[in-house]
Each structure stands twice: as C-alpha cells, then as structure tokens.
Amino acid sequence: MLNRLKPQYIILFILSVLALSNCKNNSKKHRLSKADSLKKKIVKEWTKTIPGNFSNQTELVFDSTRIAAFLQNHPALVPYEQDLRNFYRKRKFAYAWYEKGTLIEQAGNLNDRLMNLQNEGIYKGIPYQKDLDSLIFDSHSKTKVKKPDIGTELMLTAQYFAFSKVAFRGMSDSVSRSVNWFLPRKKIAYDDYLDTLLKKPSKQASAINEPVYRQYDLLKSFLAKYRRLDTLENWEPIKLSKKLKPGDSSAIVSRIKTRLYKLEDFKGDTLNNNFDDELKAAIARFQLRHGLGADSLPGPATMAEMNVPLKSRIKQIIVNMERCRWLPVSLNTDYLAVNIPEFKLHVYHADSLLWSCNVVVGQKIHQTVIFYGEMQYVVFSPYWNLPESIVRNEVLPAMRSNRNYLNEHNMVITGRENGLPIIQQKPGPANSLGLVKFLFPNSYSIYLHDTPSRSLFGESSRAFSHGCIRVGKPAQLASFLLKYDSTWTAQRINKAMHLGKEQQVTLKQKMPVFIAYFTAFTDRNNLLNFRKDIYDRDDQLASMIMSGSGQY
C-alpha cells in the first residue's frame, strides 16, 4: 500500500496481463459525512485519462441505430448505453474489434479476462459473459466467412465497460461509505483507456497503465500465489509445546522452516531441525511483514500469525484490492499518507517515497477516520482545546477527586459552553499535543501532532489516541511542510517548538493528506505485508465482495 512502495510506477499493462489469462469520539453525523470537496487542483490530478486517437481502421463502419437494437436484445447492458454511444461517436461508428473482417487479438484477451474474474478478486458476475465466449468461439470457425459481426462488436465494447466498472472502479460510493471510507473516489474516463488499449498492438513493448492504484496489481500477483498454495496445503496449525530459542534442535523447527519457506521468508534446508541463523533471519523477516517486533523468536504472537488460515489471507488480499480500486491512480505532487493499521505516516513526492515514521492512531472506541484533507497550518507551541467528550468523561471526574488537577496539568478554564467548562492546556513540554501540531481543516476534528508520550512509538500496536494522529518525527514533518519558505531553518523550527508561545504558520503550498486503511499491502521491496484489522473493517466488505451482493 502506502508503505515504502518502489519509486517507479509499476503496473503491468493490460494486454500482457490479459495474455497471461479525532481527538474526539466520532459522532454519527461525522460517519455520514461525504468527503467530496477536493480542491480543483487535486480533482484535476484524480481525473486524468490516457489520451489516444484509436486504431487506424476507419473503413468498416455500422449504422448507429444498431446500438439501440443490440441493447433491446441485451437489456442488462443498458447502463452502458451512453458509454457505447460516446465511444463510437468519437470514431464515427467504425468497428473497433475487427481488421479485415477478423477479430483482433485483444478481443480474445478481453474475453479471457472476463472468464477469469476471480483472478481480479471479483465474485460479481458480468451479464452475458457466456454469450460473448460463444461469439468469440464462433468467430474462429474455419467455415465461416470472414466479416465483421455487429453483435460481437457491440458485445465486446459493452463488456469492456462492464469489466471496467467492477475491476477498475469497484463497488459503488454507497458501499465505500457504508464501511466508513470517506476518501473521495477517483473519476476515470474509461473510453479513453479502451481507445488506447485497442490502438496499441499487444506485442508492442510500451506499457499501457491500468486505471487502478499501483498496489492493485501487486496484490493481484500475491492473490494468485496464495490461491495456488491453498490448493496444495492443509495449513494445519503449528503448536509449540515449549519455547524455542536459537541452538535448539527439534522436529517442530523443521515444520516452522517449511512453513516459512512456503511463505517465501526462509531460503535454506527445511529438513534441518536446528534453530540456526537462517531461521532467525527468516522469523525476523516474517515478523516485520506482519507488524510484529522483530526479535527472531517464534513467540505466541508470531505463531498466531503463522497459523492464520490461507483462506483468511486470501480474503484479506481481496478486500484490500477492492480498496485500491477506490484510490487515485497516481499523484504528481507531494503528499502525506497515513495507513491506520500499519501505524505509519509516509511522505511522498509523485508516488516516490521520501521517508516514513511511526504514528499513534485512535483507539477502537475513538477511531481515526478514513478521509482526505489538505494541510494548511503548522502551529508551534500549541494550546490544546480539550474536546467536550474528554472534559465530560475524563477531566471533570478527575477534578472532583483532585481539586488541584487543573494546576497540575497546566490547564485553565476559559469559559462555559453547553453546561460544561471550556478548558485549555497551556503550551509547554507536558502539553498533550506536544510542541507542534499540523492542521488540515476537516469536519472530523482530526489533525496530526507531537506528543510528550514518546514511549508509545516503540510499541508494535499503536492505537492509543482519541482519534488524532501522533507523529513520531514532528520536527522533520514541520521542516518538510515549510520547505518552500527558506527562512524556516531547522534552528528556527526548534526554537519555535520550545518558545512556550503559540505561533501559527500558514503553508505557502497546501499539502494533500490521505488517511487510509489497508490491512494487506506490498512494501518497496515487493514483500507482502499483513496487519491486524484493528477497527474490524475487513469482514463487512469481504462479505459483500465474496457474496457478489455488493452494489456496483
């Protein structure tokens, strides 16, 4: 996902793939909010299409009235009528899938992909798939006169748009909102992708990028691997009768080596029963891929992850492939991305990872919201305006038991609202927001900030906050955000952080911020990573995907 991806934008082009067959508890109104107010600049990035004029074939044309007749006979494809008309109008109703009366190679490639939708992690059927398969088969008949067939032509184009909807766009906006995903959905002109697909011969070396976030194709390759593994293995749990340590010799060691070999973490001799350095390295690699502390020992948490059934991992990959369909294809700008289950902030330029750091996110009862914003302000030595929920549920009870509570925590009452005192915590090293905060205005009252509780960044699971995101490298983030103002040197930033007087700085250039949720992703070394579903978001989406009941 958003973690440590390779700098280059690597997506297998479509033809080669075809050929291979809060600091506050979130209220109800927050959960129902629509995140659809991107600034024009970002919207422009999200609606990019691949330009192209189409193939050179213009002699074979058909009457535009044939589209209406085709749709009358295939009513399930009526939702794609406008796509069909726009596409053929641009090419003056010339056949797209025929040359010299014969179907071009891309027709068979598209059909192959349609007949193998589960390779895409899709369980939703596309109308008339078998009809298309029959038409393609019939077109290869040696006794048949070679001439274009309007039914086959229109079926192929309509099926492309149907495929694009489920494979490239994914489930509807209502589905993503129902699973609390408030990142704006991408907008793509799929006819331009079809235009370019057919313009380039499949054997041509130049790549045609698919209109999906790059992680999609990487996860898709691992989906195939895990499915193959699932057909060959029972994956019985490995149970340890005692703790294992380096130097031990046991038959169970061989079983662990074998399992890690199948998961591509271990490269040595699986028949060797000795707990050797190779196994230590393999366990550490496995632990890092699963967000665990890398102590190289097969402890309870490590063995629990090793024993997760393959079918559960397959489901996890499929769920995150669907989430990839909802993200922008790419952004040619600086941006920040937080992956909640990974507890990481990643800083990018044009999809090239610059650096990352640990973060602390919201507890399960104070979940950090999945949404998009634009960073606008850096606030040094900030005040903390305590949310009503914290005042009511935490501070007031503490004040009743300790009359000196406010003084001890450097807090003051500045007024009253809704029957509650308005409480501020003064700037300083003990301030709950630390020495700096980063604001991107949003309806969820969520922002990034420093913290005096530095020890939490050393935990492997870091869901401790009331919803806001605590940043492990606040000074480095401040420097990155203020890089367009040369007067903000490292020394000046450090001084402002320790001044004890609040200072708000408006950024010269706003910074896109994505708060996302991926429990399966590949890192920059192309290693598959899994993380725990800390907010229980996967099962609901998995159920809709695998039952085929999700709305598209």
What does this entry show, briefly?
With 552 residues, the chain is an alpha+beta fold. The chain has helices spanning 14-19, 28-31, 40-46, 65-73, 81-90, 105-114, 129-139, 150-169, 173-178, 190-199, 215-232, 251-262, 277-289, 300-306, 310-326, 388-401, 405-408, 474-481, 490-497, 538-547; strands at 98-99, 102-103, 181-182, 334-339, 344-349, 352-362, 370-380, 384-385, 411-417, 420-425, 436-439, 448-449, 463-465, 469-471, 503-516, 520-522, 528-530. Residues 334-483 form the L,D-TPase catalytic domain.
Description:
This protein is of the alpha+beta class. The protein is built from 20 helices and 17 strands. An eight-stranded mixed beta barrel has the order 4-5-6-14-12-11-7-15. Strands 8-10-9 form a three-stranded antiparallel β-sheet. A two-stranded antiparallel ribbon has the order 1-2. Strand 1 and strand 2 (102-103) form a beta hairpin. Residues 251-306 form the Peptidoglycan binding-like domain. Pathway: Cell wall biogenesis; peptidoglycan biosynthesis. InterPro entries: LD-transpeptidase_YkuD-like, LD_TPept_cat_dom, LD_TPept_scaffold_dom, Peptidoglycan-bd-like, PGBD-like_sf, PGBDSf, Transpep_catalytic_dom.
| Average pLDDT rating | 87
Distance between the termini: 23 Å
Strand percentage lies at 15-25%
What share of residues is helical? 25-40%
Point out poorly predicted stretches: 1-22, 24-55, 202-207
Major β-sheet profile: 8 strands, mixed, barrel
Total helices: the number is 20
Gyration radius (Cα, Å) is 27 Å
The total strand number stands at 17
Q: Helix- and strand-based class? A: alpha+beta
Tell me the strand order in the biggest sheet: 4-5-6-14-12-11-7-15
The general outline is globular
Domain Peptidoglycan binding-like: 251-306
Keywords: Cell shape, Cell wall biogenesis/degradation, Peptidoglycan synthesis, Transferase
Protein name: Murein L,D-transpeptidase
Domain L,D-transpeptidase scaffold: 82-223
